[in-house]
Every structure is written in C-alpha cells, then in structure tokens.
C-alpha cells in the first residue's frame, strides 16, 4: 500500500513538472510568435514608415549632399524640420530640410513670414523634372532649381496663390535640389543661372 502511495505521489510530481515545462514552452512559443508578428507589422505602420524614411533620407542626404549643406542646427520651431546652414556667396542662410514626401508637399504653405536669412531646401532622391506651385503659400518666393552638380539651372519669382487654380513653375531642366528663399533674395545674393554652388555651400 505504501509503495502504491509512493508511486502515486511520484506520478503526481511527474505531472506537475511536465505540466510546468509544457506551460513554459507554450508561453515561449506564443511570446516568440507575437514578437515575430510585431516585427512583421512594424514596417507597415505609418509612424514607423515615416521614421524609417526620414532617417534613410537624412543618411542619403548627408552622404550624397554633404558638400552642399551643413546640418546640426536642431529643428525649426515653425515646421519641426531639421535645419542646416548654407553659404551662398559669403552669406549664411539657415535652411529647413524637406527630406520626405509630406514635408516636400507642404513646403512653406501657410507661412505668413520668413526671416530674410532663412529658406527651405528640398532634396529629391534623383535628378528629375521639377515643378513647384504656390497653392496656399502666403509669401512671395524665389524658387531656385539646382542640379545634382550644384549648378543653378533656373530661378523663378513666384507670387502667392489663394485660388483653386494655381499656376505651376517648372524648371527649364531636370534637377535634384530646390531652394526657396524670400522674393528678391536671389538677386540680393547675386545668384544667377549657371552659378555653381558646390564650393559656396557647407
């Protein structure tokens, strides 16, 4: 009888140990599965996509356009975009860096004023036909189209547009960068078509 009781106790102990092991294995399995699903879904979430795109664009910008602009001025209080500094014919211009599609689509829309020594620099992933418009833009601008080599290919004086039908201002040739400054700043800085800015930017 005692032997049967001991065997029963051993059996119960065995069940307890095996049940605990199985439970741990189950928890480990489901935990691993959940983590794998999260990792698969993370790139599809909008905020993750924007963070990844923004970081990738910035790394690409620093690698490909590092000779054009000096980053490191923090973030613009108006737009929240990263800032950089450009030297144009000896004048320092602080630029907001429009590196992703949402910031490029918005541009300077809704901005009622912009200090004289500031602007916005748009960086595109490759040389392409470029055309800007002034929809919902409240201040007149100089739109300066720039090639990958840093050559000014076109300068357009654009007026604010508050109507539904706004004209476009296409560049005369494909480009990779676009600089927006306050109207008249290009002339004040001495910028003209054909200028090469590579050695004047930092």
UniProtKB/TrEMBL annotation:
It comes from Ignatzschineria cameli. This is DUF192 domain-containing protein. It comes from the Bacteria. The chain crosses the membrane at residues 28-49. Gene3D superfamilies: Protein of unknown function DUF192 (2.60.120.1140). InterPro entries: DUF192, Saro_0823-like_sf. The keyword Phosphoprotein does not apply. Keywords: Membrane, Transmembrane, Transmembrane helix.
